[in-house]
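Need tokens for this chain, all 363 residues.
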Amino acid sequence: MRTFIFTSCLLAGVAVAQAQHLASSPGWDPKAAAAYMDSRQSWWMTWPNAARDHDTACVSCHTALPYALARPALRGPLAEREASAPERKMLEHVTKRVRLWKEVEPFYPDQTRGLPKTSESRGTEAILNAAVLSARDASLGTLSDDTRQAFENLWALQFKAGEQAGGWAWLNFHNEPWEAPGSQYFGNSLAAIALGSAPGGYAALPANQDRVKALAACLRGGVEKADLLNSAMILWASSKIPGVLTPEQARQIADDLIAKQQGDGGWNTASLAGDWKRNDATPLDTKTDGYATGLVVYALQQAGRPSVDAVVARGRAWLVANQDRATGMWSASSLNKRRDPATDIGKFMSDAATAYAVLALTK
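Here are the structure tokens for all 363 residues:
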């Protein structure tokens, strides 16, 4: 028993020392991470496949969205006074589509992609627009008129009845982790995060009370169905609006995520995706990666675990040790097919990995 107590105290002491070292000396390169993220967002907005009507670009869940969530977090470490040029361009596109909401085409219309892609596209974009602009406003401390309009667009599409009551339609192209059956939990969590992040107490306004309660109930009802990737998002969302999880549910999700921590301190995305299999039948990567590690560490932090927590400290230590210093990125691989990591498409998961790693390390 004494040996167990001594070992536990020793491990806790090591975790605290790791966290204190990270706080005093980051050990990773924020400037390189920012350069990678900026370059990838710049490429995305010029890629023909990302182009949409009215001279705008799609807000992708792998590159643009995580960029919008994480890039403001680097402003402090880099002593930046304003948003980077790619950020400003992306925000211009999103703002334009919010203002022209009744005129812009769906990302994927029924006429070219089949039913119910128009509905899914509108619900998805409404959430993404609100998340992007809310993240911008959170860093500035003031809720803008454009963000208010983005939320009005969002509320108009919230389901009032049926199995998805309280949530929104979400794109399903049978691609993990953001466009698969079950990815609506990611989308609804993102909506909750956007609402809870909006400055000025927007989510608590009387006009929004029933809407927020319905969203919380929708997420709470999905806990038993969501895989661990989406459960991590629900855990994050539970820190942003009230009523998403009971204390027991929050503890269970945290315990389930912690049980998947690998021996090196990080997490592997495939291990959190249930029994998912790649479309091309190639084996999933099982090594620790930046996407799962960044997401889980950040979700645990948002749920109240401090940097000195042993689990969080080990995850952060893995992230510090595994940034590619030559490119500034953290790596992750596709869950859907084997891709060449040197190609632009092959970097999509690494784009997300880099953003969530930045969020975890700047928390």
